[in-house]
UniProtKB/TrEMBL annotation:
This is SAM-dependent MTase RsmB/NOP-type domain-containing protein. InterPro entries: MeTrfase_RsmB-F_NOP2_cat, MeTrfase_RsmB-F_NOP2_dom, Pre-PUA_NSUN2, PUA_NSUN2, RCMT, RCMT_NCL1, RsmB/NOL1/NOP2-like_CS, SAM-dependent_MTases_sf. Residues 56-443 form the SAM-dependent MTase RsmB/NOP-type domain. Residues 765-777 have a biased composition (Low complexity). S-adenosyl-L-methionine binds at C174, A175, A176, P177, G178, S179, K180, D208, D235, D275. Transmembrane segments: none annotated. It comes from Trametes cubensis.
Amino acid sequence: MAKKKGKGPKGQKSGSRDDPAWARTDVIEREHMQNDRLESYYKAQNILPDEEWDAFLETMRNPLPITFRVAGSRQAARLLNDTIKDVHVPHLGGVVFEGEAVSPPQQIPWYPEGLAWQFNVAKKVLRKSPEFKKFHNFLVFETEVGNISRQEAVSMLPPLFLEVEPHHRVMDMCAAPGSKTAQLLEALHAHDTITSSSIPSGLLIANDSDYKRTHLLIHQSARLPSPALMVTNLDASIFPAIKIPSEQTHFPADTKARVAAKRQYQLMFDRILCDVPCSGDGTMRKNPGIWKHWSPMDGNGLHSLQLRILQRAMRMLKKGGRIVYSTCSLNPVENEAVVAAALKSMPGFELVDMSNHLPGLIHRPGLTSWKPTVSKEINTTFATYQDYIQSLDETQRGSSKMLESHWPPSADEAEKLHLTRCIRIYPHLQDTGGFFIAILQKKPPAKAATASGTSKDASESKRSADAVEGLDKSDVKKPKLDSDVPPEEPQNDEAEEPEDDLPEEAADEPASPMEVDQAKPETSTEPKIRFKKGKTAEGASAHFKENPYTFIAPDDPIIKACIENFDLSADFPASNTLVRNPAGDTVRSLYMVNDIVKSIITHNDFARIRLMTAGTKVFGKQEGTEAKRAGASDTHFRVLAEGLPVVLPYIGERAIVYADFAALRILLEAYYPLTSGFADPFRSMIEAKPNGSYVVRFQPGHLGNATLAHELVLPIWKSNVSLTLMLDKRAKSALSLRIFGEDITTMAREAAAKKMQQKQAAAADAIASAAASAPDAESGKDKDEEADEEDVQEDIVED
Ligand SMILES: C[S@@+](CC[C@H](N)C(=O)[O-])C[C@H]1O[C@@H](n2cnc3c(N)ncnc32)[C@H](O)[C@@H]1O
């Protein structure tokens, strides 16, 4: 039965469009899908021409189509997409259910390479139509192993506008539960092959202020293991400066020591996603409870936080860098008003026109004018903030929650700001949710002539740097609600006091005080930063309970054993492996990070940046009786399936065995198949090896009707007489379904037997107790149907 859910705005504690529980439990009858205030508010905003209004409202009342995206590394995604297109969709064409034709899934027209799909079928069809049931099963398993991401179509858009490349430093400010984070990670890993992962030089920091939701984020992003990922748990509006030694360590002689020190140490980002908490009224089709609870005051209240998050992002962006600001709200107060206020508050940024970036995407331009309401009863009569304030009794003025930035800029200003470059998506245009996107760019360095005749980056001027620093002081250091938008700084491209032609890396004021320890030599690998006393024990970091990461020395016995056992090549980045505990003891897992993540961990206090995870697990200690029987020593680690793509490029031939397709079938069918049951040459090859962890390269081939089209690389463990495929049970089932078209695993057989037993037991109970079975009869459901419903509850997890 439907549970009551909280009614807070999206991204607040009670749930969001990205919260699966929230999405599923909210049930409301169609006749209750109306809200006079909502209609009157949005009519006042003129969001749509009159003739579209009915279609808009009607679509808002219809459930959303099911949409999903083929995820993972690009090559693997293309392959799986081909399977959907060439194997599944043809079977789903021409399905008739209860006398009605059911349409097969279709590719979303604007998603690159056709990797996103949508289909519109009732749950009953998914449950009862054999063709759709099979497809649904396939989707469930592929979702669990991370190859498919069920995600609302519009939610796939922001990362596409960010255009992340593998070398980019990327920040996802409000990232949980992480569907967009996954897309950003995929873009960082665009150079991965089907079997092995590249190690991008770039970085993704995925942040969310909600501790519990960061765990969803970690779970979601584990599907694409990345040495370039960090997850933090901070309020994005006061995200601290991250310190890394800059690539530039030499500055012109006249650079002030304080400026040089700062510029050496602040990480600036190429791409930032601000998918901010919002009122979420664009998600009504998925969360129909919003019809009942919608209030314009949610948007009014969130405006200030949204603005501060966007402004913080602007301060952390490199010149030439890009921010995507997005909400799933249609409310201009949360959208254009935030963007306009942010642009007015900080010089050097502009809205980018990307209206033709995704051919096939139907959208509308941003609004240039709107009418904020000053009460939930929809009072939009005040044309300006000044009019509104004047209308208040003097004693009330100080406590008013309305800000000047809730109101639109003048028509002239709106034109200069190019607010029409914002992108609005309305549900009736392409059968989606409602959405808003703005793409902001920090203007690239403009070369301007200086008095000395050398070429200078004019916007590096002291004036504009001061503008940024001024904002940092007002906003970041006082993490309270803004009562005001900082005044616009005059744009001055002429440097009054040109300093130097420095990289963007460090042009910002750190958000929290730090001192540079000048005594430490440049080459030291020790952190060069020390924090002011007590700083890490204050505020958010005081209660941070996670363990720190500790890098292990390249000559540590464990890493040496891994190098030996896996025949790791000389270029294996042993110095980038770390463990998750303060002293480096009780080691169970080894993590791997790339150089920039290593640099951040080394130079920043983990509690201050509330570091939840970094990099990816690659090796795990082989524990349990199986390991003891196999004689595994304390330094005997196995390569983990999740980290295998990352370490595969370094693993040497001694740790690799080649097998055919038949061997894969045996390994999937039984938990511990005997070595003697395999055919040669695989059998002799593996029997000749000592017990331990190996990597098997399964070669393409045919087996009955099944085809392995591309090499598959998986970890195994060899014991005295048997082998084990080191994948978890669900991953084995997904693999089996993908390759053999059916679940041939022991787990599937056991589950089927258990289900049969349960059905038999339930039937016996029903016969024994007629009274107990009566409510079921009343509800009109049979046990089979309930069991089916449970299956559907185990639905593909949604973003
Ligand atoms: C719209 S959701 C983000 C969805 C996410 N980008 C995705 O695609 O899966 C907004 C998120 O903002 C988080 N949030 C709310 N206030 C925040 C703040 N001050 N700083 C950082 N995150 C915040 C919420 O916990 C929520 O997870």
